[in-house]
């Protein structure tokens, strides 16, 4: 049975986030010929119309105006509630991003609909969508299906394919009525301007307490620059003030699924593994051959990271020339 699916898109630095394209592709697969709707909070939405259509949307609702320039929980959740009441989707998909994590439960609570977060897979079985999500810090997977009603699902980045389906999206402006705002954003100060977004990065070079200082992150940053990757960290490195907590990967940090994760001077505590063990290829560089990180690594290098990482950078430079 065909389904109407609404995708909540996100724009970052003038581009659609990759997880939004993943969500659009998935919507096309799950809709089984039904309508794929998308919504974008942007004054530049027209410039994305083609891309959004090509990735599977039939309809693009555009919400623009001062209140929606920057994400606030009140403005976005109230606008989405009004849109969902009008557009009547069966399923709503969004990225499991800072915004998606915040807005989805608010909308689900207001509309009294189902919520399933941080999905790594979704499939249709006997006309029902089965969502898969990791639990117990990634040690097990839970499958969830809803017997009735609308479902809001957030998707973990880098877990779904991006495909073009060549549809054409029709733009429909949507003007939410009187939203009740308790916060106004005056300015956004970005700490990591210009760097690759950790949660969507395809390559991550991560440092632990073994980097020994803030200065010790430099070789990792150089390798990341050569590979076009992002720099991450263990909580050990963040607690030691070698880097900012925004880089922390793990159970209480960011959960990432890159194609390549290079762990440098990270022991491999269970809480760290919870954030990165689903990476497609894991490389560990550690002085200690008994370090637990080697148990999850596809490739292990026993050695001093201050010798190994610069060598790796030089070799990658040569290979990529
Ligand atoms: P260490 O365990 O000290 O490991 C340092 C490693 O560096 C060692 O294996 C050592 O052999 C190696 N090394 C040292 N020098 C070199 C060198 N020159 N070259 C190569 N290798 C070298 N941790 C997280 O990362 N993320 C989380 O989200 C997180 N959440 C937590 C939540 C809770 C509730 C708790 C209790 C803990 C959490 N932790 C988290 C902390 C976690 O338990 C570990 O303490 C932490 O991951 C250790 O960081 P580390 O591997 O950098 O440091």
Automatic annotation (TrEMBL):
InterPro entries registered for this protein in UniProt: DHS-like_NAD/FAD-binding_dom (IPR029035), ETF_a/b_N (IPR014730), ETF_a/FixB (IPR001308), ETF_alpha_N (IPR033947), ETF_asu_C (IPR014731), ETF_asu_C_CS (IPR018206), Rossmann-like_a/b/a_fold (IPR014729)
UniProt record similarity statement: Belongs to the ETF alpha-subunit/FixB family.
Annotated CDD domains: ETF_alpha
Protein name: Electron transfer flavoprotein subunit alpha
Alphabetically ordered keywords of this record: Electron transport, FAD, Flavoprotein, Transport
Electron transfer flavoprotein alpha/beta-subunit N-terminal domain span: 5-193
UniProt-listed PROSITE patterns: ETF_ALPHA
Domain of life: Bacteria
One Pfam assignment: ETF_alpha
Source organism (scientific name): Brevibacillus choshinensis
Lineage: Bacteria, Bacillati, Bacillota, Bacilli, Bacillales
């Amino acid at each position: 049975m065909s389904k109407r699916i609404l995708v909540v898109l996100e724009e970052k630095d003038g581009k659609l986030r990759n997880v939004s394209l993943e969500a659009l592709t998935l919507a096309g697969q799950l809709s089984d010929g039904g309508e794929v709707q998308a919504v974008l909070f942007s004054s530049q939405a027209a410039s994305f119309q083609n891309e959004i259509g090509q990735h599977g949307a039939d309809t693009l609702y555009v919400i623009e105006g001062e209140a929606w320039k920057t994400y606030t929980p009140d403005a976005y959740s109230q606008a989405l509630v009004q849109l969902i009441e009008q557009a009547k989707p069966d399923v709503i998909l969004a990225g499991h991003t800072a915004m998606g994590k915040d807005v989805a439960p608010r909308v689900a609570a207001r509309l009294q609909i189902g919520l399933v977060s941080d999905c790594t897979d979704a499939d249709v079985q006997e006309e029902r969508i089965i969502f898969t999500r990791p639990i117990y810090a990634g040690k097990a997977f839970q499958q969830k299906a809803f017997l009735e009603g609308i479902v809001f699902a957030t998707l973990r980045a880098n877990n779904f394919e991006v495909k073009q389906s060549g549809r054409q999206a029709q733009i429909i402006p949507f003007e939410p009525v009187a939203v009740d705002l308790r916060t106004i954003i005056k300015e956004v100060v970005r700490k990591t301007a210009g760097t690759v977004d950790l949660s969507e990065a395809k390559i991550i070079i991560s440092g632990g307490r073994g980097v020994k200082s803030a200065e010790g992150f430099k070789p990792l940053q150089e390798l990341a620059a050569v590979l076009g990757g992002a720099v991450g960290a263990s909580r050990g490195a963040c607690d030691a003030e070698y880097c900012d907590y925004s880089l922390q990967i793990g159970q209480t940090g960011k959960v990432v699924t890159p194609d390549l994760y290079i762990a440098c001077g990270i022991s491999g505590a269970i809480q760290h593994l919870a954030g990165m063990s689903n990476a497609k290829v894991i490389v560990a560089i550690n002085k200690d051959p008994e370090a637990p990180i080697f148990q999850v690594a596809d490739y292990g290098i026993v050695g001093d990271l201050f010798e190994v990482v610069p060598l790796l950078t030089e070799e990658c430079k040569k290979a990529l020339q």
